[in-house]
Hints:
Elements: H1 2-12, E1 21-24, H2 28-44, E2 48-52, H3 55-60, E3 66-68, E4 79-82, E5 86-88, E6 93-95, H4 102-109, E7 115-120, E8 131-136, H5 141-147, E9 152-155, E10 165-170, H6 177-184, E11 190-193, E12 195-196, E13 202-209, E14 212-219
Parallel strand pairs: 1-2, 1-4, 2-3, 4-7, 7-13
Antiparallel strand pairs: 5-6, 6-12, 8-10, 8-11, 9-10, 13-14
Amino acid sequence: MTVYKEFLAAEAVKLVQDGMIIGVGAGSTMNIFVEKLIEHVSVNQIHIKFVSADSNLNTMASVDGITVLDILNVAELDLLFDGADFVDLETGLVSKGNGGFIFNEMFLAKFAKRSIILIDESKLEWNRLPKVFLEVNEELLAEVFNELATFVCFLREGLSAAGNLVLELSVAERSDVDGLIDVASRLDGVLMVGACYHVYDQAWVARRANRSMFVEKFNLKNDR
């Protein structure tokens, strides 16, 4: 799927203009996007400000023409680009968190004037990764486990990028996700739910037809 990611990144970077503040999530697609972004800045001799949910991408982007910001000092983003584990184009549901960056990614999304999810067609299939990810307060872990007892929960080894515990919840049916979001979002011990509505503006889906590749764009908010 690398060719899809490269095509998406090349198309997305065309939106970046001089003086913009650009936010980026995390994951393999964002790695490729940052590579394209560095090239775009250099070739067009522009200057931008940049922040990522992934500290490694902040380090990568520390080049001439790019001023890297501390994520805690972000107050506004002109554009935010991110990936996802699953997107429901009909309802606008976005599910993410397999990489362990939920809190940082959602934090950045709050400050974005425009946010775009970059995915290939495989990310439109729920059964490819039928899980919802949560970032959890360690002190309230037992309470969270108790409240989510009806779900199959797995505590991931290691912490998220924001230093929180990560719970993986198996959700076999896409139709069960809404109920999980409702329950989990009301628990004090859950710091961030990795499935959401009305957060990201658009999804760009890379597709191939007749040996040609193109991007199809979908509005995820659209007054839903």
